[in-house]
Protein 1
Amino acid sequence: MSETAPRPTLEAVAARAGVSRATVSRVVNGGEGVREPLAARVRQAVEELGYVPNQAARSLVTKRHDAVAVVIAEPETRVFADPFFARQLRGISKELTAHDAQLVLLLTEGREDHARVGRYLAGGHVDGALVFSLHLDDPLPGLIQRAGVPTVFGGRPGWSDGTREAVYVDSDNRGGARTAVRHLAGLGRRRIAHISGPLDQTSAADRLEGFRDVVGDDDPGLVAVSDFTPAGGERAMRELLDRLPGLDAVFAANDLSAAGALRVLRERRLRVPEDVAVVGFDDMLPVAEQTEPPLTTVRQDIEGMGRLMARLLLGDRHAPTPTGPGRRTQDGRRGIVLPTTLVRRASA
């Protein structure tokens, strides 16, 4: 069995650089008061020796852990099957890496996991939390508030537990939905239906409101509630076709639901877009490009949302402020709302 080389110490770095141990500690931990020539010698010695700071000791000095919790209020089966989460996590990971911070992923499979997440956040293991995919009755916002960690939420807050100063990043879900439905109406479609997402999530509720802004709410039969999954899109499409034989267009609340709807339309031998035009929401590649036909959809910058959430949490001076190019809700919550655009393909 080979022997492991001893790990370089602060003392070894100090000896190599010809400075005191305290000087090395200040440079390594980002402290001030070290002249640049000495700091440069320390950095060179660190590189030559391959010194890696002890994170536990470093945290005692800096009061920072260089770690951020990413809390997704969904079971792992959903998180790892839905490309939306992969794209948002990619954006978060890129930004944290640029700031030399680690990502700690926390999932909530069920109610019993909420207390575990709350305890972990309150335990001082991370510098903050990024939280998304919350549902209206989710206890996480209250637990996070009691944990006292800085937090940025993905999506417009919809809960009412006292977290009035919540900072969030969202897309213009309502405006994007209006754009999608107006596009269908502009194609001459007169019987436009909606496959919604779960209405205990504000993104789905906002997209439904955008649909109603154009179509109206006189006929509730035009809406089939689904769950943002392909299987849910299939069930909702069958329900709508059985209920509305004259249906000629569908706006689905996300691309996965739209993909399920397209499968059912093929089963029913309905041509897209000739018989029924379909528009989705997200522009998740490769999903939107690989449907048959390729999907017209509303693009939101999912990866960009993740990066912006991380920048806001880390206090990046280049990040926009929630009270600047975003908007403040009536109850005082501060949000940055990113624009959406329609991407036209063959389905509508």
Protein 2
Amino acid sequence: MPWASFAQRPQKFVEWFHARTGSDVIWVDPYPTRLPRLSDLRRPRPAKELAGHALPHWLRVLKPLALPIEPLPGSGWINVFWRPTLCALERFAQGHDTLVVAGKPSVFALEVLKRLEHARSLYDAMDEFPAFYTGFSRRALAHREAQLVARVDTLWVTSTRLQQHWGLVRPDLQYVANALDDTLMPAPRMRDHDAQPKVFGYVGTIASWFDWDWVIALANARPQDVVCLIGPVFQAAPAALPANIKLLPGCHHAAALEAMRNFDVGLIPFLRNDLTASVDPIKFYEYRALNLPVISTDFGEMTYRAQESGTFISASQHDIGALAASALACENDCAAAQAFAARNAWRARFDAANLLP
């Protein structure tokens, strides 16, 4: 993802790395790693949370130019526009201990590892990336990722599914789950059990993995309450929405957290498919740190959280009503929420991985 986007795990890793080492960092913005599709022209652009913000003095952002031809054989030779970026990285690393971190498989990442062969390297596998592509692009990316996994010194994975998959070829991998930025979290609030209507809320992208049918079923099961969806919509609802579903546009992270704080229940309504099988949603950690009970569909890492406090996993649309009632009756404990945030902060997560000497 670009540096100037909604701050997620890669940005948090960079901030942690600088805080722990005091070192300068070069961030390389991504470029297209699949062949273009006609639908790309119709895809709305997500809001840039950090656009216009000054970069930290220790950070430099490079934006390599590239033709969208990566899946094709020889694309690394054709994309001569990379050369200035590669040379800048070589100059940056010269004479210094360097850590190369890849967050997405690509020909460019493999070329950097080749050129900086004496640097330590890490691949932080955050998704089942080939599942986002189709056809030749999917096969090519799977091949690039296998090369990357074999070449790096350290492999991190963010979910049980990825651990099971890559553990067959890299038994030395480390499971490093997602987390939250506790420095940005507002104080959790005590939920008012008597307040009406109740707000069942979701904050995040609404795309092909979003389970509209489940959300509509929830709205119909709780007609006296509000289902609030906040975020950019890339996948339109399949039918007319019940009147108690409220759609709001995406917003900056601070505003999103404040909106979450006013929910009564946090929602994670994702489909169960290849796209979500390896997902560990950051919003789960944020919801729980805000003293919100969570209702999630049964997907990805959420499958393994059925026994966790304040977490309710929906197996189908038939259990929605009962789960909603249980979530609303859930324990109201702000102290436990704050302790959860401290345990699941990014710095605690990365420190525990023992990456740095």
